[in-house]
Amino acid sequence: MNPTTQFAEEPQPARALGAPRKVFDSDHWLGAVLIGPAVLYIGLLVGIPFFMSLYYSVSNTTTGGESMTFVGLRNFANIVGTPKLQTALKNTLTFALLSQLVILLLSHALALALQKEFRVKKLLRFLILLPWVAPISIGTIGWLWIFDSTYSVLNWTLRLLGLVHGPGFMWLGVPNLAMGSIIAVHVWRQLPLATVILLAGHSSISKDIHDAAAVDGASFWRHFFQVTVPLILPISLVALLFGLIFTFTDMIIIYNLTRGGPFDSTQVLASLAFYTGIAGGDLAEGAAISLFLFPLLLAVAIGFLRTARRAEVL
Amino acid sequence: MATVEIRGIKKNYGAVPAVNGVTLHIKDSEFLVLLGPSGCGKSTLLRMVAGLETPSAGQLLIGDKVVNDLPPRARQVAMVFQSYALYPHMTAFKNIAFPLKAQGMNKTEIPKRVDWAATLFGIGHLLQRKPRELSGGERQRVALARALVREPAVFLLDEPLSNLDAQLRASAREELQQLQRRIGTTTIYVTHDQVEAMGLGDRIAVMRAGLVRQVGTPLEIYDEPADTFVARFVGSPPMNLVRHADYVLGFRPEHFLPKGTQDPSSTTVSFSFRVTRVEYLGADRLLYGALGGAYAEQKVIGRLPSTVTVRIEPNLTYDFAVDVTVLRFFDPSTELRVSARSL
C-alpha cells in the first residue's frame, strides 16, 4: 500500500462520549464519585453521632426525658472524681497497654517466623488469620465456654496435666484472672491484623538489605534491632495506633465475657459509658464518659502519625 | 588477602539447576570477572561465595579453608550489591561504620577507619547525609566504602556500576580498577556488560547456563574464544560466524576489510560482500550485508575504522578480505573451537 494514501484521508472526528464515560474519564468527577460513598458513610454513621455525643455530654438529656438543656461541663465535673470512673480509667489503661504490649511482641515474632519458608506456612497463615475473619460475638461466646466456671476446658486440661487439683480456676470470677482472661481473648482477636500489617512491613524491606547486614557481619540481634526494627518502625506505629484506638473504644469482649465484673474489675470506659448511657438511661453522663479519653487519643494519634512520617526512610 | 577456590559447585532450585558444576581458582589479589547473560548463574555463584546461598554440591575454599558451612560473617568477605543495599535509615557514616561495629571494633577506632574509607572514595563531606539525600554515584561510593572499610579478604561486587549513567560508569570503572590494584584485595566482579569485563578483569570467566565456558585474560577471551558462544557474546558487534563445508568460520568485524587495505605481506582469504546498510558511528563505519559465492547469503558485519576511507555504498557488492591468521574455526555440532583448516 502506498503510505501517502493513509495520510491523505480526512481525519475522523472523535466519537462523542456518553455521559457515564465522561464522568469516568474526568479526574475531577471520578474522584468525587469514588470518595462520595465513603464521605457519606462516615458523615452519617460517625460524624453525626460524634457531634451528637459532643452535645449530649454538655446537656442533661436522658433516654426517657424530653429536655435537652445545655448544662456546660457539669457532667464531666460529676464523674471526674468518682471511684467508678477512676477504676474504669485504670482498667482501660491496663487492658489497652498490656494487650498491645503482648500483641506487639507476638506479632513481631510471628511476622518474623512467617517470613521464612517452611512446609506448613500457608496453613499456619490461614490459622493465624482465622480469629480475624470469625464474627467476634461468636468467637467470644466460644471463649465464654472455655472460661466457664464449671465446664472450663482450660481447667479440665490443667487437671489432666496435674497442674491443678480440685475445681480449678474461676477464670471470669476473680478480678485479676478476669482481666487476664479478657486480655488473652483480645490478643487472640487482634493478633492476626497486627501480624498481617507487620508482614507487609517486612516484605517491603529489600532482600538486599538483609543480605548486606548478613555479609557485614551483623548478629541476629544487631540485625533485628539496628536494621529490621527501624525499617518497620513506621508501619509498626500505625499497627500500634490502630490497636490502641480499637482497644480504647471497643467493649464487645467485655460485654460478652464479664459485663464489666467482677466488682467492676474489668469495667473500661467504653463499657461504663454503655452501662451508664444506654442501660442506665443517663445519655448525658454516658456521652461525657465516652468522650473522656478523646483528647488523649487524638494527641496519641497525631503523635504516632508524626513519628511514623519522620521515621519513614525510603 | 586470600585465594578463592570453587570446586565443582552446583546449585539447584528445585529441579532447575542455576549453577551446574563450576570449578574456578581465583588467585590472591586477582580481579576476576564473572561475565554472562542474565540467568547464567553468575550472581548465584557470587552469592554462594558470600555465603548467602548454600551450594547443592561442591566445595568452596577461601584462603585454603573450606567455608561451605560458615555463615557470611565468618567468611571475611565484603559485598557490594547492584542496588547498593545501603541502610536507608542510617547516615553514610553509620552505614560505613556498621560492619566495624558488628566486628566489635574499639569505639575510638571506628571514626578513624570510617574517615580513612571515606577519604579513599572522596565522600568525606557526605558522611552526615542519609542515602536518599545522595546521588547514584555517591551511593555507590558509600557502598564501596562500607565494603572496604574492614579490609576484607575477598571483595565481591554484583554489577555495582549498572545503575550509573554511561559517563559516570566509565570513570567509576577506572577508579575501581586503580583502587583494586592499590589495595590488592582479591576481587570477584559480576557483570553482563562485556566492556566492563574487558576493561576491569585480570581474567574473565564467561558463563552460560550455569557453566563456565572459558576462563582467560581479556585478550585470550577476545582473540581465542573457546566456543561460538564466547565468540558472539564478547565483542560488539559480535564475531561473524559463517557456515562453510563441515565447520563454522569466525572472524571479527574489524578484521573484515575491503580487499587491498590489508598488510600486503599477509595472506588473506577473499569474500564477495553485498552491502545492505552502512552505519556511520564517527570513529567507525559499520557495514551490514551478506556474503556471496560459497558462503551464499550468510549475514556478516564489517567494521571500518575512519582511517579506511574507501567509499562504500549500500546495495553494491565489494571484494572484502580477512587475514588468515585471525580466522577462527568451530565445530558446528559441539560449538567448540577446532584447529585451523585450509579453506
What does this structure look like?
- The complex is a heterodimer of chains A (314) and B (343).
- With 314 residues, chain A is an all-alpha fold.
- Chain A has helices at 3-8, 19-25, 27-56, 74-80, 83-115, 121-133, 136-146, 153-160, 175-203, 207-215, 220-249, 252-257, 269-279, 283-290, 294-311.
- Chain A is 72% helix and 0% strand.
- Chain A starts with a helix and ends with a helix.
- Chain B has two domains: 4-223, Rossmann fold, CATH 3.40.50.300; 237-338, Nucleic acid-binding proteins (OB fold (Dihydrolipoamide Acetyltransferase, E2P)), CATH 2.40.50.
- Chain B contains eight helices and 19 strands.
- Chain B has helices at residues 42-50, 92-103, 109-120, 136-148, 166-183, 194-200, 218-223, 228-233; strands at 4-13, 16-26, 31-35, 57-62, 65-66, 77-80, 154-158, 186-191, 203-208, 211-216, 240-244, 247-251, 257-258, 268-280, 284-291, 299-305, 317-323, 328-330, 337-338.
- In chain B, helix 2 crosses helix 3, helix 2 packs parallel to helix 4 (136-148) and helix 3 (109-120) crosses helix 4.
Concise summary:
The complex is a heterodimer of chains A (314) and B (343). Chain A contains 15 helices and no strands.
Topology:
The complex is a heterodimer of chains A (314) and B (343).
Chain A: H1 3-8, H2 19-25, H3 27-56, H4 74-80, H5 83-115, H6 121-133, H7 136-146, H8 153-160, H9 175-203, H10 207-215, H11 220-249, H12 252-257, H13 269-279, H14 283-290, H15 294-311
Helix pairs in contact in A: 3-14, 4-14, 5-9, 5-11, 6-9, 9-11, 11-15, 13-14
Chain B: E1 4-13, E2 16-26, E3 31-35, H1 42-50, E4 57-62, E5 65-66, E6 77-80, H2 92-103, H3 109-120, H4 136-148, E7 154-158, H5 166-183, E8 186-191, H6 194-200, E9 203-208, E10 211-216, H7 218-223, H8 228-233, E11 240-244, E12 247-251, E13 257-258, E14 268-280, E15 284-291, E16 299-305, E17 317-323, E18 328-330, E19 337-338
Parallel strand pairs in B: 3-8, 3-9, 6-7, 7-8
Antiparallel strand pairs in B: 1-2, 1-4, 4-5, 9-10, 11-12, 12-18, 13-17, 14-15, 14-17, 15-16, 18-19
